[in-house]
Structures are given as C-alpha cells and as structure tokens.
Amino acid sequence: MQIKKLNTQDSNFKDQLSQLIFFEAEENTQIEKTVAEILSDVKKRGDQAVIEYTKKFDHVDFSRMEEFEISKEELNLALKSLPQKSREALEEAAKRVFDYHNKQLMSSWSYTEDDQTLLGQKVTSLDRVGLYVPGGKAAYPSSVLMNAIPAKVAGVKEIIMVVPSPHGERNQLVLAAAALVKVDRVFAIGGAQAIGALAYGTQTIPQVDKIVGPGNAYVAEAKRRVFGVVGIDMVAGPSEILIIADEKSNPDWIAMDLFSQAEHDELAQSILISPSESFLNQVQESIDKLIETMPRKKIIETSLTNRGAMIKVKTLEEAAEISNFISPEHLELSVDDPDSLVNNIKHAGAIFMGRNTCEAVGDYCAGPNHVLPTSRTARFSSPLGVYDFQKRSSLIKLSNQGAHKLGKIASVLAHGEGLQAHAKSAEYRIDNE
Amino acid sequence: MQIKKLNTQDSNFKDQLSQLIFFEAEENTQIEKTVAEILSDVKKRGDQAVIEYTKKFDHVDFSRMEEFEISKEELNLALKSLPQKSREALEEAAKRVFDYHNKQLMSSWSYTEDDQTLLGQKVTSLDRVGLYVPGGKAAYPSSVLMNAIPAKVAGVKEIIMVVPSPHGERNQLVLAAAALVKVDRVFAIGGAQAIGALAYGTQTIPQVDKIVGPGNAYVAEAKRRVFGVVGIDMVAGPSEILIIADEKSNPDWIAMDLFSQAEHDELAQSILISPSESFLNQVQESIDKLIETMPRKKIIETSLTNRGAMIKVKTLEEAAEISNFISPEHLELSVDDPDSLVNNIKHAGAIFMGRNTCEAVGDYCAGPNHVLPTSRTARFSSPLGVYDFQKRSSLIKLSNQGAHKLGKIASVLAHGEGLQAHAKSAEYRIDNE
C-alpha cells in the first residue's frame, strides 16, 4: 500500500495540503427534499407518520408508537447479560468520563458594584435532551456514554434516546450502555423521522430542547433543518487523526494509530507528520507489515490510500504550524517533550500527549469526550461537554443610583438610534431617589 | 388600542398561550434558492461576484474590491465627529460591556491523577471573526459594541466587519462604534454576498472562522447555509419582552417598557403578566395615554395589537411557570422581591430584576450582552458572550501506569465494538514499563 508523501519544501506544498484535507459533504438536493417532506409530515401527523416511515425504511411494522418504546426491563436485561469483563470495562469508562466532565460544570456568578447595582450570570441546565444513536455497523455503546454523561452531569432531567432497529434487531450493547448511564426513555426509531419526532414532539414522544449524536446523511440534514426549533450539537464530517512523531517513536505503534482512525470508514483521514524522513519510511514498512493482520484491512487500505498522507517537515515547530492549519479532530504528539510542543498548538479537538497516549484510549475511557469537531471546525468549536447542556441567563439589578447613572447613558444612546420609547423607559428611572 | 387579554383560569388558556407565542419564520424556497446561488457564485468567483451583486442590490458601482474597504482614517473621523455627549455615552457603555465580559473569560485547566496521568482542557481564542452589521434602519452602533467586545475580550486577533451602504450612504454612527472598539477592517458590503465572502474568503477579504451579527432573511439563510464551513452565532427571530409586574409597579413605566420592545418592529412581541387585574387595566390606560407621545406610534400599535398580550395569573409563582414556558428573550421582574422570584426562573435570555431595571438599560450600557436567544431558544441557548469566541481542546497525557491500566479497558471495549486496530493500538502501550 502506498501512502501519499508530501514535503513542506516542495514548491506546491500548500496546494497539495489544501487538496489533501479538502472535504465537503456534497450538497444533495434529493436528500434535502426528502428530509424536508419527512419533517413536515412528522410535524403534522405525529406518531402516525413516524410509524409509517419506520415501516418503510426499517421494515418494522408496529401499529402503535408505544410498541417502539424499549422498556426499562429490556434495557436492564441487556446490561445484566453483558459478559462480566465488558461490564466492568464499561463501568470504569463511565466513571472516568463522569469524573472528567464534572470539572466542566459551570456555576452561576454575580458581582455588586459600588452603588449596589448587581450584574451576573445565572447558569441552568436544559430540561430535556434527545440522543440519536445510529443503527447498524456504526452503533457504538461508547457513543451512548459520551453523549449521555455530559447531559447527566449538567443536570438534564430527561434524556430521550432514539436508535433504529432495522428489521427489528436491537443492538444489545447499545441498550446495555443506555441502562448503565440511566437514559430515561428509549425508542427504537431512527432516521429523519426520529429527528422530527424529537424536535416537534408527537402524541407519544415529548419535544426535546436539544438533539445530540451522530447519524447518516439524512439524520445530519434533518438536524440542520430543525436547528432553531431545538438546539443541535454539530454536523460531523469523517473522523480524522493527525500524528506528529519524532524518530524515537515506535513505527509499529504509529502505524497502528493511523490504522485505528482509518478503520472507522473509507472517508476517515490519517495523517502523519515527522521531521525524520527515515522514520516516515519505517512507518511505511510497519504499515505494509501490519496491514495483513487487520480484520478491517479493506477499509483501512481504502482510507489510507485515498485520504492518508505522510508529511516531511523541517522542525517540530513547522509541524505544529501545519497542524494548526489542519485543525485536526484528534492530534497525537508522539515526541520527547509534548508539554513544550503543546504550547504551539492552537486548534485541535483533543490532544494526546506523549508516546504513551494513543487516541484509542481517549475514544473509550480516558475521561474527555470523544465527540469532537471534525473537518477543520476545531477552528471555532469544541468537544461535546457539560457546557452544551447548560445555558446562561444574564442578571441585571440596578440600584436607585445605578438606574440614575445608567438611565442617562441609555437615554443618549437610544435617542441616537431613534428609539424614543427605549429612551423614555430609561428616563423614567432617573431621579427616582 | 386594545391589547389581547388572557387569563390562566380560562379553560382554553394553554391553547391561547401557544397561539400567542407561536412564531415561525416561513420557509421561503425562493430565498433559499437565491441565497444558494449567490453563495456558490461568491465561492467560485470571489471579489468579482461580490462586486456585481453589490452593484445589483446596493447600487454601488465600484470596479475593485479595495474601494469597498473603509479606511482607518474614515473610521476615526466618524468617531471624532460624534457630538461630545454621544461619544461619552458610547465610551462609558463600551467600558461597562468590557468589564462584564471580562468575567466570562474561560481559562485552561488540568489535573493529575495518582498515577501521574494528566487530563485537562486547553482554552484558546478564535483567530479571525466576521461581524455582520445590517444597513438601513436597523443599523445600530450598540450592536457593533455588543458583537465586537466579547470577541476582543476573548483575544480574537482580527475582526472583519461588513456593513452594506445602499446607494453609497455610510452610517457614521456605526463607523464611529467600529473605530471605538478597534474593529480591524471594515468593508461596505452586505447581504448573502458578504456572508459568502467572509465564509469562503475572496482575493481581498480573508476567510473568517465565525460570523456573528443580525441581518435580514437573506443574511439569515446565508448564515444557516455556511454553518459548518464557519461557525455562526444564531439565527435570531423577532425581539420579545415579558414583564412580570405586581400592582405596586408604576403603570406608566410598564407601558413604556412594553413600547420599548414594540417600537423595534411590527413583529416584536410584548407580554405583560400580573396577578392584579386592576393593574393590568391601569397599564392599558397608560398605553392609551402614552401612545400619542410616541414618534414610532404606528409600529408600536401594530406590534402590540397583533402580537402583544396581558395575562392575568393567580400568583407570581404561576407567572414564573408561564415565563418558563415562553422562555423569553428579555424578562423584567417588576416586583417587591425579585431575588426570590428569580429562583423560579429557568429559561430566559436576560433577567431585569426590580422596578428600577428596565430592558433599555440592558440594551445599551448595563454590561451584559444584548444579543440574546429569541423565539423560545433560551430553552437551550445563551446570550452572546466571550465563550462564543473561545474554544476548548481536550488534553490527555498518560503515565506508563495510566497507559497500562486504561489500555486494558480500551482493549476490551474496542474488541466489543469490532474495532481491532483501536484495541491493538491501546494494547501496544500495556506493560511498557
């Protein structure tokens, strides 16, 4: 397998880099149209529409919405049926994710000025959240943990999970994870119709305030459309890893780290940057050697051949610059002094520091969230966190003196903008002592 | 003028309330199509496309993009030309907005576990932000302050402002505000073409990481479409105020507070809730008396008649419940003990506590932001703040011991999900002591 090789010394390096990382979900007007119709139908007809679309797309033929609800008993049975080792691993992972996210909890604050005017910010949690879990091959119990735990920590009162069960097959690992983190209600529905049900509410499914979780192109488009009616987390692109490694790293380890991203799907992107040409060659050798041992060999090969790359740089500082341009979802710093190099990093979803720290541990159990900004969106967005399930209200409480002083300023500015009622409303409070 | 009257004791109160607050921006496929075309054209042809659309929509006929850039000199001249009183008011407002937003600044944190594994969160600012300022009657200098200052406090290195100048007319107040808060570059362009230029970058206008600021239906649709390529703040609906007032409030003040929201535009919504029927009647009288003094009488009348309402409740607690359902953008608590009532409030953009505190002061100079969630989105979103211009990267640095312990857990979970490269990548780090 031959991985693309780039070198920052090449005259057209910047163009090559842009081409490499360029990814744009194609605009698909057919998907847009279909999703718009499904959403409007679910909004209008509620349960009945969801039932019909689920019969059509998932081949599950129930006549009442209640039949799609998965009972507490079924969830708990799934958890009890887990092999002991899996259950312990899942519990330990959940505990660590809880611990980390607890540190993100925001609190209300306020301060009082000299004239007793109080200003502040009141922090509250969202009331009810919808959690979308994909069906089929991309249904991961770890995703249930990573999406539900921050909501729980924030204090969200009710989490409604939806997960499609094509042909009625229910993913037991996903149900076990839902039981473990105490998701409140679970419905075996999916697709744009499930997003519509959560966003607008139906006779059976209560309207939520925000929808989180990954999904296919239809789910992504549906989330984009209902944004505003409810909050959404983000519309994720293919997963990516960028590894900055020096020549002292173990080439087998780095090759496997590149595989671990590539095995997700054919569009996933793995990029390795190193100042050492010989190290890059060693990793290429490790790739050729290790690929034969991989059950998901085909996916890995397609991903690495089409979207993977190795980039030779002059220095680690240059590597950091390129990383900042790429703004990767996952960034491994497999170098002697990651504490120093991390100071040069500006944009990245999660940073894995040191040779010991592989992305896979972060995906499951280190503690931080594995829902991360993809496709260069780390330039402006953040990992999913407790803050996504909290919100803030500004607090303003003026003293007599404050109303007097600020009323005068507001009056001048309001008149300047031609808003006389604003001005008068402020003026009423002047001289009210 | 007759304002709608509702009473929680009416049998169909809930339906009436839902009807009252229901607002949905109509889906306009013509706008969607036009905007999609403009964006794709700007993406493809850059400056030349922006120049042509600006000629067509704003009737400004420049041949080079540079001619649309407003020089530092022109900005500073606008600031110098302000009347002394206006300048002082603007400066004092800016200072207070700076002070409040400084308290929102997030810092990086990390902690070390017993085995020396480090977990944390690195906080950085966005690099470059685009600020959209509408032209025409809704061009407010206060909006420039409220959008630019949180970005400045966050440490954003470059703010690019766009503001249309139909027929070449440049709003001097807006330019003065831009000079005051040291916006880096200003272009006299607007509409979907300006959003496209900021989102994709052109030969002259650099690509930004996030676009904030209000705009008309075309601008809103354009922001919705470029979301993902860049971040956006929110897609705002009509402005709203909800006032909870007891019978000891001054009916003239409350009437004027209702006007101050209604004067924004015909779709703005002003709602008053009180346990006192006689107080509601007094406010109705004040409205009829004071409306005659209002230069924006027509807008206020249309807004109050079509979208305004008074709601009679049994208790202040019931008022808070209704407020939580409405989740208003602005909430005034004109009561004896606002500190106690505020505990019952869960969803609101900004809360104005006590009879002294009118919304207008918050709009201009109290300190908190005036960009607030509308149309019930306070259920899941927050005022614009410094946190909108900062982002977080997770930090994970495993000790040998940590890699050993967590590698085992990750291995079990990865095998459970059928991701063998994930498992192997973690296993390599086990027993590496």
From TrEMBL, chains A, B:
Cofactor: Zn(2+)
GO biological process, one term: L-histidine biosynthetic process
Binding site for NAD(+): 132, 193, 216
Residues noted as binding Zn(2+) in the record, renumbered to the chain: 261, 264, 363, 422
EC annotation from Swiss-Prot or TrEMBL: 1.1.1.23
Annotated substrate binding sites: 239, 261, 264, 330, 363, 417, 422
CC cofactor note: Binds 1 zinc ion per subunit.
Top-rank taxon: Bacteria
Any Pfam family the entry gives: Histidinol_dh
Active-site feature positions: 329-330
Catalysed transformations (reactions): L-histidinol + 2 NAD(+) + H2O = L-histidine + 2 NADH + 3 H(+)
CDD domains: Histidinol_dh
Record keywords: Amino-acid biosynthesis, Histidine biosynthesis, Metal-binding, NAD, Oxidoreductase, Zinc
GO molecular function, one term: histidinol dehydrogenase activity
Annotated InterPro entries: Ald_DH/histidinol_DH (IPR016161), Histidinol_DH_CS (IPR001692), Histidinol_DH_monofunct (IPR022695), Hstdl_DH (IPR012131)
CC terms in the record's Gene Ontology section: cytosol
Pathway listed: Amino-acid biosynthesis; L-histidine biosynthesis; L-histidine from 5-phospho-alpha-D-ribose 1-diphosphate: step 9/9
Record carries keyword Zinc: yes
Described purpose of this protein according to its UniProt entry: Catalyzes the sequential NAD-dependent oxidations of L-histidinol to L-histidinaldehyde and then to L-histidine.
Family: Belongs to the histidinol dehydrogenase family.
Protein name: Histidinol dehydrogenase
Source organism (scientific name): Candidatus Methylopumilus rimovensis
